[in-house]
Amino acid sequence: MARDSPSDQRPRAPETRAEAAASEQTASANDSSANRHGDGREHDQGFEHDRIARPFIAIIVASLVLYFAKDILLPLAMAGILALVCSPIIDRLERFVGRLVSAVLVVVIALTAVAALGYFLTFELTSVAVELTAYSDNIASKLSALQKKTPAWLQQVENATREVEQQVEHSWSGHRGASRTVTAAPAPSPMREMIKPALPLLAGAAEGLLVVVLLFFLLYERRALRARFVRLAARARVTIAVEAMDTAGEIVSHYLLLYSLLNIGFGAAIAVVTWLFGLPHPWFWGVLAFLFRFIPYVGAAASALLPTAVAFAVSPGWGTAFEILGVFVALDQILAQFVEPIVIGHGIGVSAVALLISAMYWAWLWGPPGLILSVPMTVCLKIAGDFIPALNFFSLLLSADDPNEDYRDFYRSLLEHDEDSARALAVRHSHEYGLENTFNKFVTPAVLLAAEERAGDHISEELGRFVIDTSQALVVQLGSRLSAAPSASAPRALGLFPPGEQHTLGLIMLLQLLKRNGVAAQFLSASSEIEKIRSCARDYSADFICISCTMEENVDSALQIVHTLRRDLPETAVIAGGRAALAAARRFLDAGCRQVCRNRSDAIRWFRLMRPSIIAASLRRAKQRGSSSPGAGSVQRPPDSGSNRLSTG
Question: Pick the residue with more confidence: 386 or 647?
């Protein structure tokens, strides 16, 4: 992984909103004025009536707009989904042929594929309809045999129903005959009669052209559109981070691209199976299965109806039709239960009920195109809710996570000072999803929510401090619970902060994850003077040092620490992280940092990549220490010196 090597001198955008904000959590509760009072528990008992009604009113208004503006918004939605799917491809092409050529190339390929697909489906469907007329005798014989086997009671029901229909038809025909009036209809215009059959084709062609034009501009201007969207949101006082938009776009693009490739594989498998069964036009059934599988849950079964009917018509018996139907369902389940979890993982966390309701909703709004777009649109809304606070209600409505087991219950337990319940929830989540996921998706969102609530004066300063301190203690407990004791020859890591730094939770989480990877990790629980930091770093003999800097006013002192450590310990690697460090990445690299990490995952990847060289340097220093060490494999620690002591984190 060359991008994680020490020579990579450019920091990158955060991968997730939780990780990007992990280093700025612990002091958020202190940013508000200290003269506000009350513990704020009453505010957490329920939202205000207007905050509850606002999302539902927005959904109703948006539904009306989507319904009446279908002619404009449907092509825009189709172009937007295609742009998201093509974004990973165009990002790679742009490096070689430039932005304009890559956009034109992708649009031409997409247009050619859609045109070829439309022609292929039209031609093949016509051929199938023509060929089925040759099997009319076989169909009639099967229906006749089926009618002979109909039970007597069912035949009586059919006869009674037929008699009722005849009586109703007779009465209606008599009524129409008595009151019938003849009116002269104007003769239709010959020109109108000639153009009328072509109007649907012209409308479809115009809509397709609009989609193509929109797709080109969305691909060509995607970065400018993103910047404008962020500025527009800022004017509307909606908090949207550029990194969050990038991450959300990457998640949606990656998911839709992989989902499309899996559907292509499903269609190819169906084509091969129908060919083996001797069904005519096997590639037509494969393409049909590919398109229908975009419809959630029922798409694969729906795509099996027509080939099952054709098998019923062309085969002499009944077995082939049922076998075709069974193969469609079996392949769909194999793909959904075994292949998709491996290729895509657990997806983007949309619940099954939400997908079904979404499919009905979009089909009601936009018809068959809305049904096909329902899965991509639902994915986009769910990811938008994950990363845009103002749209968080979409995440709540569409999420597949158990609402009783997410970070909100953890946060609520902390607000109630129920440490045992909060600890039980965190331990259960860590056992099910792992330590890193618990830090990123469980503890960090709870701390961020506490900071937001404190900034809005919904909880007291004391309660916000309690949430942060308890979360920090739980992080240490989870790390100790899930990490084995490091071996005597394990690499040593030291975590520290510049003087005055208040955001500590992100670095503590990183050290716990390093311990999980077999590192003997320690951190300076409080950093006040550079001389004491130098003393602790020399005495601990760390193999690499992690320094966190999230506050801009601490950048200069952090750079001074890096200079000092590189001068005192030239063989010890120093890596930096935090919001302020990322903003001043070039200065930290020039000061001697081996890497400026964008998040905890980046730091873990760097350690895994550099582990052999770190261990080799550690062995060299161990040989140099020789008999001067207090004991084989022991760690020499500095004595306690007030607040400047080494802590196990």
Answer: 386
